[in-house]
Amino acid sequence: MSGYVPTKGEIVRDRLRERVGRVMDREGACFQLRPLDGGVEWDVDPADIEPVPVSAALRDSVAELNRHSGRSL
Questions:
Q1: What is the pTM of this model?
Q2: Dist. CA 46–CA 39, nearest whole Å
Q3: Strand partners, 7
Q4: Which architecture does CATH list for 11-69?
Q5: Taking the mean position of all CA atoms in its chain, how far away is CA 64?
Q6: Which candidate, 52, 63, 66, 67, has a CA 20 to 30 Å from the CA of 73?
């Protein structure tokens, strides 16, 4: 998505890794994203970031929590 610049705290999708995360900061040319349930941040090129609708962010967050819990609903 050309020209899209996320804000700190926004939930976005890393298209390259097919992961959803929260924007924590920007360092140089990359943004740092953190998984919605916490954990280690990863760097993302701005060209690989796209906005995520709230409903999709919640769905992905629940799916991630289910994976970590070892059970699904």
A1: 0.72
A2: 21
A3: none
A4: Roll (2.30)
A5: 12
A6: 52
